[in-house]
Design goal:
This protein is an alpha+beta fold. The protein has a single domain, classed as YaeB-like fold. The two termini are about 25 Å apart. The relative contact order is 0.20.
Protein backbone atom coordinates (compact mmCIF):
# COMPACT_ATOMS: atom_id res chain seq x y z
CA UNK A 1 0.00 0.00 0.00
CA UNK A 2 1.28 3.46 -0.92
CA UNK A 3 0.26 6.28 1.39
CA UNK A 4 -0.33 9.61 -0.33
CA UNK A 5 1.75 12.38 1.27
CA UNK A 6 0.71 16.02 0.92
CA UNK A 7 1.95 19.23 2.46
CA UNK A 8 -0.53 22.06 3.04
CA UNK A 9 0.27 25.50 1.67
CA UNK A 10 0.78 26.83 5.18
CA UNK A 11 3.17 24.02 6.09
CA UNK A 12 5.03 24.50 2.78
CA UNK A 13 5.58 28.19 3.64
CA UNK A 14 6.78 27.21 7.12
CA UNK A 15 9.15 24.59 5.68
CA UNK A 16 10.54 27.06 3.12
CA UNK A 17 11.13 29.64 5.85
CA UNK A 18 12.85 27.11 8.13
CA UNK A 19 14.98 25.80 5.27
CA UNK A 20 16.04 29.35 4.34
CA UNK A 21 17.02 29.98 7.97
CA UNK A 22 19.19 26.85 8.04
CA UNK A 23 20.83 27.84 4.75
CA UNK A 24 21.61 31.36 6.01
CA UNK A 25 22.52 30.60 9.61
CA UNK A 26 24.00 27.10 9.52
CA UNK A 27 25.90 26.90 6.21
CA UNK A 28 27.98 23.90 7.27
CA UNK A 29 24.81 21.90 8.08
CA UNK A 30 22.33 23.68 5.81
CA UNK A 31 20.65 20.46 4.70
CA UNK A 32 20.17 19.06 8.21
CA UNK A 33 16.52 20.18 8.43
CA UNK A 34 15.53 19.01 4.93
CA UNK A 35 17.33 15.69 5.43
CA UNK A 36 15.52 15.09 8.71
CA UNK A 37 12.20 16.07 7.14
CA UNK A 38 12.81 13.56 4.33
CA UNK A 39 13.49 10.83 6.91
CA UNK A 40 10.27 11.80 8.72
CA UNK A 41 8.29 11.46 5.50
CA UNK A 42 9.65 7.95 4.94
CA UNK A 43 8.87 7.03 8.56
CA UNK A 44 5.31 8.36 8.32
CA UNK A 45 4.67 6.55 5.05
CA UNK A 46 5.74 3.29 6.73
CA UNK A 47 3.86 3.89 9.98
CA UNK A 48 1.42 6.80 9.67
CA UNK A 49 -0.02 6.42 13.16
CA UNK A 50 3.35 6.73 14.91
CA UNK A 51 2.80 10.36 15.90
CA UNK A 52 1.38 11.47 19.23
CA UNK A 53 -2.25 12.56 19.07
CA UNK A 54 -2.20 16.22 20.12
CA UNK A 55 -5.70 17.29 19.05
CA UNK A 56 -8.98 15.66 18.10
CA UNK A 57 -11.80 17.24 16.16
CA UNK A 58 -14.71 16.07 14.03
CA UNK A 59 -12.29 15.25 11.20
CA UNK A 60 -10.17 12.95 13.32
CA UNK A 61 -6.83 13.05 15.05
CA UNK A 62 -4.09 15.60 14.52
CA UNK A 63 -0.75 14.00 15.32
CA UNK A 64 2.76 15.26 15.74
CA UNK A 65 6.24 13.86 15.53
CA UNK A 66 9.44 15.46 16.71
CA UNK A 67 12.39 16.03 14.41
CA UNK A 68 14.83 15.52 17.27
CA UNK A 69 18.00 16.75 15.56
CA UNK A 70 16.56 20.11 14.52
CA UNK A 71 13.88 20.40 17.24
CA UNK A 72 10.83 20.91 15.04
CA UNK A 73 7.42 19.31 15.38
CA UNK A 74 5.59 18.12 12.28
CA UNK A 75 1.82 18.25 12.75
CA UNK A 76 -0.19 16.05 10.42
CA UNK A 77 -3.45 14.25 9.86
CA UNK A 78 -3.60 10.67 8.69
CA UNK A 79 -6.75 9.53 6.93
CA UNK A 80 -6.70 5.73 6.81
CA UNK A 81 -9.89 5.69 4.72
CA UNK A 82 -8.05 7.67 2.01
CA UNK A 83 -4.53 6.33 2.61
CA UNK A 84 -3.25 9.89 2.92
CA UNK A 85 -1.15 12.03 5.22
CA UNK A 86 -1.45 15.79 5.12
CA UNK A 87 1.20 17.86 6.89
CA UNK A 88 -0.60 20.79 8.50
CA UNK A 89 2.15 22.71 10.34
CA UNK A 90 5.86 22.58 11.11
CA UNK A 91 6.77 24.41 14.31
CA UNK A 92 10.00 24.70 16.22
CA UNK A 93 10.01 23.71 19.89
CA UNK A 94 10.83 27.29 20.88
CA UNK A 95 7.78 28.59 19.03
CA UNK A 96 5.54 26.05 20.76
CA UNK A 97 7.05 26.93 24.16
CA UNK A 98 6.67 30.68 23.55
CA UNK A 99 3.07 30.24 22.47
CA UNK A 100 2.30 27.84 25.28
CA UNK A 101 0.37 25.44 23.07
CA UNK A 102 0.31 23.53 19.83
CA UNK A 103 -0.84 25.41 16.72
CA UNK A 104 -4.59 25.63 16.33
CA UNK A 105 -6.43 25.11 13.10
CA UNK A 106 -9.12 27.66 12.31
CA UNK A 107 -12.13 26.83 10.21
CA UNK A 108 -11.01 29.38 7.57
CA UNK A 109 -7.60 27.73 7.10
CA UNK A 110 -7.24 26.39 3.53
CA UNK A 111 -6.47 22.93 4.87
CA UNK A 112 -10.13 22.47 5.86
CA UNK A 113 -11.02 22.26 2.16
CA UNK A 114 -9.55 18.74 2.24
CA UNK A 115 -12.05 17.58 4.86
CA UNK A 116 -15.76 17.74 4.11
CA UNK A 117 -17.96 18.62 7.06
Amino acid sequence: MIVKFEISRRARRQIDKIDAWWTSNRPSTHSKFSDELDRAERLLRENPEIGIVCAVDRNGNIRRILLSETEYHVYYRYRADRDEIIVLHVWGLLAVAARGSDPTLKREDPIWAHFPL
